[in-house]
Each structure stands twice: as structure tokens, then as C-alpha cells.
DNA sequence: TCCTAATGTTTCACCACATGAAACATGGTT
DNA sequence: AACCATGTTTCATGTGGTGAAACATTAGGA
């Protein structure tokens, strides 16, 4: 490797360990060692450190590790002022009340997207969206929006080292992205999740940068492709208003 | 030092850096270096690592660091099932409605206490309690409860390396703790915060361990010492119910 | 305008310290 | 008991983290 390392390996590993707890909330030592491919004893030392600092705790019963109080404490000190998750919540609730379906808000984070906020439909049969979920960028309406409106450099990087299902430079995919940019929204029909359909639009801030993707989704029994296209203008109007806030 | 170190220094430092963001939400490099007493370049390498992993981000405008998305993502994966902060919330709201004052929930964490939940009084003049705040263990009604019901070993450790304001083994303090254990609640009158008064009781789980402290607090204009003692039985009943849940 | 100070960044030689193999301990299962 | 799967500790090795110092960049002050 040519570029000199200006990061600290031990810290990288410790942070990787922490992120393992997004996969499972309770992990054993060897389990972690397997996940990040390190020797038991190395993981053990790192875990002792994390435990001593309160970032993980050992469950009294199972002897396994789980995330600790310090993680929670840190999260309370995240700057809330410009946080889209709280800023857009009222608008998302209005949208839910108007369309009657689950509304989600996504951020692009590296090669994934992150559901940072969701308000659930209150109909009996509904799509339940989990806040904090990390999802792939290659399927789903919101993914297509986030990719379509990403900068060309970001797109290149995404296509490069991501295990994209089909060749993105196959022309057809690029044409689809172009179409999304033109009409301003993307749809998906049983694309990531069987039985679910969605429309998504970008939220553009005043600098013209796409800050997030807003989507409405529900069960295919209630939502046809026609419905998706009917929802689109309503979503775009809401997204426009939200974009003015940041 | 006799006991061999079985922790990783670099990771300890990185975690210390993260915890600095509970003091201020925006920090510069030299600022951090000053806080944890390390060389600039060392902090710089650690920050690069934290940034690359998404645990901190640089504010585009100020060039300073703030907590990143990964912290938030982690926090959404904290196991909510047995979390007192969500478990006790309904009970705390009922208590607030009944007494009309701000209700807080505290956990002991090391040599401090942590406000992990709060429901605000809806009166015009009220005490506003910030969730996530780290407070000292040597003043306030909740502190006295947490100390009084701590195990003797924990108490020893607390008195030892904590900068306690007055000698705790001075007899008077110990007698006060004994009294709190006897009657089951503690009060404070403009003790930590001028103009504020509070009552606190322990929440005891079915194993007989004190899991948390529950307090009701408000402005001295509305709350006399008599009021505190009137509140106490109501609080104790609520705390008893909560204790049965865990 | 130049000078100074303060901040962030990179380089580098040293040797502390993180590392992983292996031995050890523990508890559960057959 | 013998086994296996966990977690824990020890220890020699040399990698990789460290901090001093040099460098870069910007802001302000005279």
C-alpha cells in the first residue's frame, strides 16, 4: 500500500466491533471474533477496554455483551438542531395523515442508505418501517432516488466497489436514473420487499444538494402502480417544503 | 503499576475523545488535545480514524468536529426491551399528571448519576430537566437515594476517589443516609440548583436491588418542605409498581 | 502590506505496546 | 470421564502507535 496509514488500527477494530451490535444486540466473544476476523485474545482485550469505558456491558444472565450506557449518553448529545429526523417529523406526519400510508426518510451513508425517521400508517394492514435500519442502495424507490441525484463522482465510487447486482453501466440502468431525474421521483413495486410498493422523492436543500430521500410505501393490495403516480405530486410538494427548512 | 494492563490504550483514548462531545457538541483539534491532555498529532490520527468510520464528522462551515451518524445508528440498536427509560415512561407521565411537577429518572453510572428519562411539568413556571445530563452524586435528593441504597463496597469506592465536598465519614452524613434508608425517601431544598426542591425514592426490582431513583421536583415557590413530605408516599407507591416491572 | 499567532497536517525515528499463538480455565453436553 | 466450546491469561515478537518537530494554512493585528 502506497498511501501512508494515518489511522489507528486498534481503534478501527474497536469501532468495527461496536458496529457489529447493529447486526445483533447480543454477541459473544468468539462470535465477534468471527464477524471481524480477528483472534479471540485480540477481541478480548478490545472488549475489556470497551467494557471498562462503559460502551458495552455484559448481560448478567447470558454472559454476552450488549451496548452500554455510554452509547446512549453520547446519542443524547447529538446536535438535534439541524437533525432532519426531528426537523421533518411534523411534515412526515401530515403526509401520513393525508395519504394514510407509512412515510420514511432516508439518508445515504457510504454504500448504504439509512432509515433515519419513519411514521407508520395506522391502517390495520400496513408496512412497518424500522428506524435505524441500514439498507442496500441498489433496490427500492428511495435507493434509486439517492443514486440518481448523487454526484457523478459518488456514483462512480458506488458502482465501483459495491457488489451491484447487475452491471450499472449496462445502459438500461443509466437510462432509468436519467428518467428519475427528469420526472423527479422514483417508484418500486415489490422490489426489495415482496408485497410492498413505494414512491420516493429527493429532498433538496437551498444549496441545491440532495440531503435525503422521502418515501411513502404500503402493501401492494392497496397500492397499485397508478396509486404510486398519484402519490408522487403530493410527495414532491411536501419534499419541497421540507427542503426549504435546511 | 502492578496489575498488568489488559486494555488497549489507543482505544481508551479514542473513547475518551468521543465522551468529550458530551461537554460540547462542537470541538476543534487542539481543544480536544487540551481536554484529554494529549499531543495534537496523536489526537489528529485518532480523529481521522473516528471520522473515517463515521463516528465524528467535520462541520463544513466551522471545520470543527461533531458526533456522526454512526453514533446515532448505534443508539437505535440499544436493546429497548428492558430499558427503564421506555419501560417507566407511562408511570412517570401518570405521576406528572397527578402531582403536576417534573418527574425524572436517574441511574447511577460510576461516580455520577445520569438522568435517563424526564417528563416535564406543564405548568408555566416549571423545572426543566434535560435527558442525558450527567450530574454529581454528592448533591440532590436523587443522589442521596442512590448513595444510601448502594452496596457498602460501592459506597466505599465512591467516598474514596471522589472529590466529595465534605468528609462523608463525618458521622452526620452517614446518619443522614441511615435515615433515608429507614423512611424510604430523600428530599432536597435548593441543594444542587437554587430555586429548586425535590423528593426522590429508590426503584427496587424483584431481586431487591436498587435499579434507579425516581424524583419529583419543582420551583421552591410552589413546593415547600411540607409539600415534599406529602409527595413522598405517592412517589413510593409509583416506584413500587415500577419495581415490579423489572 | 508584513508579521505574528493559532490552528491543522505531515514526517520521522524510536521503542512501547498491541498482537496472535498457545497454554490455561471453566462450564455445559454426550 | 472425555469432550467441546466458550472465555481468560501469558508471553515473545516486531509492528505500528507515539510525540517532537517541521510544515502548511489561515486569521488577525499593527
Automatic annotation (TrEMBL), chains A, B:
Source taxonomy: Bacteria, Bacillati, Bacillota, Bacilli, Bacillales
Name of the molecule in the record: Glycerol operon regulatory protein
UniProt xrefs under PROSITE patterns: HTH_ICLR (PS51077), ICLR_ED (PS51078)
Any one GO molecular-function label of the UniProt entry: DNA-binding transcription factor activity
Ranges in a coiled coil: none
Start and end residues of each HTH iclR-type domain: 8-69
General function of this protein: May be an activator protein for the gylABX operon.
SUPFAM superfamilies in UniProt: GAF domain-like, Winged helix' DNA-binding domain
Keyword line: DNA-binding, Transcription, Transcription regulation
Protein source organism: Paenibacillus dendrobii
Amino acid at each position: 500500500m502506497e498511501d501512508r496509514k494515518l489511522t489507528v488500527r486498534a481503534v478501527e477494530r474497536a469501532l468495527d466491533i461496536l458496529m457489529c451490535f447493529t447486526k445483533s444486540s447480543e454477541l459473544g466473544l468468539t462470535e465477534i471474533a468471527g464477524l471481524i476476523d480477528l483472534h479471540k485474545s485480540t477481541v478480548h482485550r478490545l472488549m475489556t477496554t470497551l467494557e471498562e469505558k462503559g460502551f458495552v456491558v455484559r448481560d448478567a444472565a447470558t454472559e454476552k455483551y450488549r451496548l452500554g450506557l455510554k452509547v446512549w449518553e453520547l446519542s443524547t448529545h447529538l446536535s438535534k438542531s439541524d437533525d432532519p429526523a426531528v426537523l421533518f417529523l411534523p411534515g412526515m406526519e401530515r403526509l401520513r395523515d393525508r395519504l394514510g400510508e407509512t412515510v420514511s426518510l432516508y439518508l445515504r451513508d457510504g454504500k448504504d442508505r439509512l432509515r433515519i425517521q419513519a411514521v407508520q400508517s395506522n391502517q390495520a394492514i400496513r408496512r412497518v418501517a424500522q428506524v435505524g435500519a441500514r439498507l442496500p442502495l441498489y433496490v427500492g424507490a428511495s435507493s434509486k432516488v439517492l443514486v440518481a441525484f448523487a454526484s457523478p463522482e459518488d456514483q462512480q465510487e458506488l458502482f465501483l466497489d459495491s457488489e451491484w447486482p447487475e452491471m450499472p453501466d449496462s445502459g438500461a440502468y443509466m437510462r432509468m436514473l436519467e428518467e428519475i431525474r427528469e420526472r423527479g421521483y422514483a417508484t418500486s413495486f415489490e422490489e426489495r420487499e415482496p408485497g410492498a410498493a413505494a414512491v420516493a422523492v429527493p429532498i433538496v436543500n437551498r444549496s441545491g444538494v440532495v440531503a435525503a430521500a422521502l418515501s411513502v410505501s404500503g402493501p401492494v393490495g392497496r397500492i397499485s402502480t397508478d396509486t404510486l403516480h398519484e402519490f408522487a405530486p403530493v410527495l414532491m410538494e411536501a419534499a419541497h417544503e421540507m427542503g426549504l427548512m435546511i
